[in-house]
Amino acid sequence: MNEEREIIGQRDDPAVPRYAGIATFALLPRPDEVEHADLAVLGMPLDSGTSFRPGARFGPAHIREHSRQLHPYHQVHETYPFRDQQVVDAGDVAVGPYDLAQAVERIHAEASRLVRQGTKVLALGGDHTVALPLLRAAAAAHGPLAVIHFDAHLDTWDVLHGASLWHGSPFRRAAEEGLLDLEHCQHVGIRSGVYGPDEFDDDRRAGFELIRSDEFQRRPMEEIAEQVRRRVGSGPVYVSIDIDVLDPSHAPGTGTPEVAGITTRELFAVLRGLAGLPIVGGDVVEVAPAYDHAGITGLAAAHTAWELLTLMGLSART
Ligand SMILES: [Mn+2]
């Protein structure tokens, strides 16, 4: 880290409470307020790849609104995530709703621009299609990536309704394009309905091993985290978190909810067990606020993003 550079953290005006003022993510500065950003939170207001309930285009704003309560110190990692690295809120990518291929190109262009200037991207979705251009940008800089994918769904499916680009296919397309390290990818929390066992064969060919959500009932979470660490090895890691990995009781506001999921506590336990991995990028996606209640999903997503950016700060330090 550059010790001389002044790091600007969260807004800290005693006259303005956390619930007031414009909500950047965690009340962090914008890019034009800092010399250099080590990590940019970047909104993806897009849900044109959704197969079931639409609405994730409103996810980034919802997550920001619920990120006002994020604090500067992480009591488990004993670190200050906004001091270890300069984090900014880079706003939303300029994408429209009608042309998904064009939106994917724009996300790729914006993420690539940030990555080239040495800024890691933590994306707020938006539907899971956005992971493909984000992986393209990260892999261009770091080579094939070990992906840790928290999700109820495999997302290694092929064509749906004639489209190869949709929110259930990003990791299949990424594998085909050589963006993934096929020996080192890991799903966590899988449980959705499938049409048959061949879907799991396709999934293995896309480079993934899987941990199902029901394993959380009989296995210690430390052991699950250790299995993930062993699988991903020592190369660059990308962490993709579909909020529907959580049980609908913990995240009702999402497009394709699946029952019998994991809890926020279980998700955080596994994430915290990944400290020290070289995480080069990540996303928290599929937040659809129209189906949320009392901000449960917004809060879960904001805090999940905070856990992830804390990990990214720890990997920057090592
Ligand atoms: Mn997904």
UniProtKB/TrEMBL annotation:
PROSITE patterns: ARGINASE_1, ARGINASE_2
Keyword Coiled coil: no
EC number: 3.5.3.11
Leader peptide range in chain numbering: none
Pfam (any one): Arginase
Record flagged with keyword RNA-binding: no
Keywords, sorted A to Z: Hydrolase, Metal-binding
GO function term, MF aspect, one: agmatinase activity
CDD domains: Agmatinase_PAH (cd11592)
Family that this chain belongs to: Belongs to the arginase family. Agmatinase subfamily.
Name of this protein: Agmatinase
Organism: Agromyces indicus
Lineage: Bacteria, Bacillati, Actinomycetota, Actinomycetes, Micrococcales
